[in-house]
Amino acid sequence: MRNKIFGEPVILVVDDQATDVRILTEAVRDLGQVYFVTDGRSALEAARRWRPDVVLLDIQMPDMNGFAVCKALKSDPKTCDSAVIFVTSHTQTENELRALEYGGVHFLQKPLNIPVARAHIKAHIALRSEAKKLANHDALTELPNRTLLYDRTDQALQQARHSRGKVALLLIDLDHFKAINDAVGHAIGDAVLQVVATRLKEYVRVIDTVSRQGGDSFMVLMPELENFDAVGDFSAELLSIISKRIYVEDMHYDVTASIGIGLFPDDSDTLESLYWHADTAMYQAKQHGRNTYCFFSAEIETSLRARHQLELSLRSALEQGDFRVFYQSKVDARTCQVAGIEALVRLCSNGVIVLPNQFIPLAEETGLIIPIGEFVLRQACYDAKSLSDRGHAIPVSVNISAQQFQVHSFLDMVKAILSESGLEPNMLELEITEGVLVQDIDITCETLAALRSMGIRISVDDFGTGYSSLAYLKRFPVNILKIDQSFVRTMLEDKSDAAIVATIIKLAQVLGLELVAEGVETEEQAQALLSLGCHVMQGYLYCRPIPFSGMSVLLDNNK
Ligand code: C2E
Ligand code: CA
Ligand code: CA
After folding, report:
1. CB-based contacts of 26: which residues, under 8 Å, 6+ apart?
2. CATH topology of domain 317-558
3. Spelled out in words, what is the top-level CATH class assigned to the domain 10-136?
4. Whether residue 403 has its Cβ less than 6 Å from ligand 1
């Protein structure tokens, strides 16, 4: 059935007179694959089955005449593209007009002038083939496009259902391709895509279809498989072929891809599920660090559904106001006075408190961290202001994700929240991770300087776990280093962690930065940190994160 979509043109002859059928089929025999039927109903059936390029249609037939057949063909999406040429002995212009009205493209007079008729039929075949090519191919790579791929996949599945065969669908998505487009422009990007397309086309089996889905994503349809044993190796080979260095205009480019694989009938029973599963698996391959392939599996689907569910609940939590801000104090261990509080977000879902590690990563991926972060900042500023109004002038620190920092309006947002809450800027501290600092150095530096000139203080969170480039500490206007809790946790048992803690403390002293040790859980840890020169501590030893009401009471008592 494959050749119905591409390959030889198909001509369907419909005439109730045996002699006419013979003359017509004889006349067009060498122009393509020719089928004939002798009544209207069979014509519709045959057209759906063979998808003819051209239908040579008699008008006068018993039961269903040519006009009715033409009308039915044109109203069925599977057959509406066929070019219908009426062949009849009717001579009236009226008939000719009617034929065109019903969607016919031409009107041939019996008895046929064979050479003239052939010329017309040939012209229509050529037109159809050009139109099919345009409609079914991607202009850039000349590969079959999405439409054609779906059609072929549909047919491959039908065939596999009959023959109990197997079909694999691979979705190939180039990794970080946008970076090439952004760096060297679309013309070069297009040339790279063409090279990838050619490599794929040359590698697959003759019966496979490589298609470009658009952008930097391709698909390979593998029909007629006996089993899936080789699909993994095949995918690995595709990855290695794609990642071979690409040369365009004396420059070279290294591209990798992620492949997701859906399998019929093992994990998918319809075209839609096959496609969706390949897509899901591709996404998983990206998660696994790219330049790899991944088969779809039920577990992937379950975990994706859970993610989707979580995303929905984050959105609804934003609308319903289900986020809460908890506070944990930072304590000066020498005086046991509270030196500051850190705002830590919580999701309150049907009375259950969900911790940020469960939803911040997804919130960052989906961009929801922007509104969530804004909510936390606003709440924290209002809470700190109300504390300071009650005589507790204690700075509040708020965690800021890298994405928030990238938003152009970030500075304006901070300013607006400070002014609406009335909090003094020097009572606000922003905690950023080392990741933020290495993003876009110039912009980051500018933003930090602007924040600092407003009087806001900046601390580097989880210090020591990130990029550990010390150069930026000198360059960026930061005030505080927070020693990551992973070092504190093991500093008494692990000599190298103890050495890291000691080094961070020395570094802060040399650079004139303040210090906070995170995750202090025992008196021994606190003593060790104190003796090394770090005085401000945050951890369960002093206080767990608690709601604002609890923090107010605690501060009142602390006074
Ligand atoms: P973080 O900024 O490093 O915050 C410290 C985390 O350590 C908090 O976890 C806190 O509850 C926990 N912790 C404090 N003391 C101890 C201790 O003695 N032992 C142990 N084992 N853990 C301790 P939490 O609240 O679950 O937050 C986890 C992370 O989620 C935070 O790590 C921060 O990166 C992120 N996060 C929290 N709130 C926000 C927010 O509003 N915005 C953003 N962007 N991230 C947030
Ligand atoms: Ca923090
Ligand atoms: Ca931390």
Report:
1. none
2. TIM Barrel (3.20.20)
3. alpha beta
4. no
